[in-house]
Design a protein that fits this description.
By secondary structure, the protein is an all-alpha fold. About 65% of the residues lie in helices and about 0% in strands. Helix 4 (about 65-85) crosses helix 5, helix 6 runs antiparallel to helix 7 (about 140-155) and helix 6 packs parallel to helix 8.
């Protein structure tokens, strides 16, 4: 029996995020704030190429091992199934679009910086409810997941914390749109 690199997009994403956190904590303490964090409202300088790159890379950076593990527990659980259903490149593009949407909305609406994969987690959670989608039907699993996960985020958004519930909601919205408009790859 041999080990198979069964979900290249998901596994590469997980390993890259872990390497960035390790390097940031051990050697380059400014790595995550500089290259893997989206600035908040008023902090985005369009003349700085780094700010444009961060619109996509903020989903790779994490504040701590607990932050990374809580995100990638879901991504490693759900991601391989989605990669099988949709394909590696389409899933990578969905992750990139979700990063861009959550990053851009953060720059436009919030003063605090944004980092982490939780928007991608919520994109995958909502997208997963569409894997058995039949045209002309709305899966009950989608409705329940939407009510439970996004309902909780809306409720939590009224509490004082350092979690970007809005990124979760935006990621879930992206996953919903991908589910409705991107059919599952059938073989």
């Amino acid at each position: 029996m041999k080990i198979k690199y069964n979900a290249p997009t998901v596994l590469t994403y997980a390993f890259l995020s872990a390497i960035v956190l390790l390097l940031s904590q051990l050697f380059f303490h400014s790595l995550t704030p500089a290259w893997f964090t989206v600035p908040g409202k008023g902090g985005f300088d369009p003349s700085q190429i780094r700010n444009w790159i961060n619109l996509f890379t903020h989903v790779i950076g994490h504040a701590s091992w607990n932050h990374l593990l809580s995100n990638f527990a879901f991504i490693l659980l759900i991601g391989p199934m989605l990669e099988t259903a949709y394909g590696s490149l389409p899933l990578l593009l969905m992750i990139a679009v979700t990063a861009l949407v959550t990053g851009a909305l953060n720059i436009l609406l919030f003063r605090t910086a944004l980092l982490g994969a939780s928007g991608v987690v919520f994109m995958m959670i909502l997208l997963a409810s569409f894997t058995n989608f039949t045209e002309g039907e709305i899966p009950l699993t989608f409705i329940l997941v939407l009510a439970l996960y996004l309902g909780r985020e809306i409720f939590n958004s009224f509490s004082a914390n350092n979690v970007s519930e809005f990124a979760h909601i935006a990621g879930g919205f992206c996953g919903s749109l991908f589910g409705f408009f991107r059919p599952v790859k059938r073989e």
